[in-house]
User: Which sequence fits this backbone?
């Protein structure tokens, strides 16, 4: 299989296990459905849901700017969504060349994207500096450097930035 | 005038201690100052050292990355970014602060501008901040004196003391929220709880804004 370059995106519902414990499986299911429905309806062309991962989603975008813009818009939509239980999602993005395995993607770049989302808080979009470099200047978006960060399973610290709407 | 150079401190293991004082030259014990391939001014821990001690000038900007171990910053610093997994993080004073950790305690003295703390279960203590942005899953959040705040937690308790003029927002799922406003202040409040009890002892007015929503937590707004 050939390597392909693109934006690897992980979403993760913050505190999902705790919320399930507090409010039960019906609430958990509704959060999952709300997240998936909103994400699928927000995805532009040349992007897709690769797979569902428990309380998160693995997404693929051919274009890095589209990934950033879509994820920032999703955070605004998540924040504005109505419901007794809020939908708090964190998002991590890495631009890389994963290997394709059927419809799935695998490899170091996928692992790194998964680690980046671990660093994000509710409502945040974090991405690797590599992603920001590919994006370059993007109107309405600033990238705040958070510095080289040690992440599990990756030997060298990874420069991370926070995408912020301005 | 060129922006002051950021000091990067990286160590996978071991603790980091930073002391800032007026006019101090950059000096390090337990580590080496070097230029990274990207041109960064970087401090790396010596292989046999269990801790990096950094002395720097007041107002220095720092980015500290560890995988585990405590981080202690004393003195008045500039913009500070800290990422770690566990261990205590303490910052006495900074102009701006970003902390990311999974667990432990984050203790912050005073931050002029934004104090941003993202954690899973760490207890977050903020003495004062221009703006506090805190998100936890289960960690408790205690902010001593904030002008503006945005706090989200699933089950942690939240206690905020406002300066009485800014916008303070707290959202929890089950965590209790206590907001204290200065005596005599009359904030605009919007307090919502699906099943929790709401108590507000403050008369309503236009002295700042307090927005609290929770699913099952209790909300209490009181005067100092």
Assistant:
């Amino acid at each position: 299989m050939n390597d392909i370059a693109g934006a690897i995106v992980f979403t993760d519902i913050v505190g999902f296990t705790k919320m399930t414990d507090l409010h039960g499986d019906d609430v958990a299911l509704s959060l999952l459905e709300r997240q998936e429905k909103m994400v699928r309806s927000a995805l532009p062309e040349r992007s897709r849901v690769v797979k569902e991962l428990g309380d998160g989603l693995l997404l693929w975008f051919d274009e890095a700017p589209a990934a950033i813009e879509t994820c920032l818009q999703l955070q605004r939509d998540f924040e504005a969504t109505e419901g007794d239980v809020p939908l708090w999602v964190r998002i991590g993005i890495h631009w890389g060349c994963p290997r394709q395995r059927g419809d799935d993607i695998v490899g170091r770049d996928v692992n790194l994207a998964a680690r980046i989302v671990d660093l994000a808080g509710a409502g945040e979009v974090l991405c690797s500096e590599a992603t920001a470099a590919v994006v370059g200047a993007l109107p309405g978006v600033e990238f705040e450097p958070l510095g080289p960060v040690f992440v599990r399973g990756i030997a060298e610290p990874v420069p991370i930035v926070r995408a912020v709407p301005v | 005038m060129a922006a002051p150079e950021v000091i990067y401190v990286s160590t996978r293991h071991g603790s980091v201690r930073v002391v800032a004082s007026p006019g101090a030259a950059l000096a390090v014990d337990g580590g080496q100052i070097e230029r990274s391939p990207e041109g960064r001014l970087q401090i790396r821990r010596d292989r046999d050292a269990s801790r990096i001690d950094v002395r720097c000038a007041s107002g220095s900007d720092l980015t500290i990355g560890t995988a585990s171990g405590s981080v202690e910053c004393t003195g008045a610093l500039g913009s500070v970014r800290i990422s770690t997994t566990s261990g205590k993080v303490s910052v006495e004073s900074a102009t701006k602060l970003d902390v990311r950790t999974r667990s432990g305690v984050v203790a912050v003295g005073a931050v002029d501008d934004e104090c941003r703390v993202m954690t899973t279960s760490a207890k977050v203590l903020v003495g004062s901040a221009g703006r506090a942005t805190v998100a936890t899953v289960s960690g408790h959040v205690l902010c001593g004196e904030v002008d503006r705040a945005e706090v989200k937690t699933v089950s942690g308790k939240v206690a905020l003391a406002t300066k009485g003029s800014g916008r303070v927002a707290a959202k929890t799922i089950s965590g209790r929220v206590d907001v204290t406003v200065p005596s005599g202040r009359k904030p605009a409040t919007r307090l919502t709880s699906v099943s929790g009890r709401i108590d507000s002892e403050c008369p309503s007015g236009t002295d700042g804004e307090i927005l609290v929503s929770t699913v099952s937590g209790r909300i209490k707004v009181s005067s100092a």
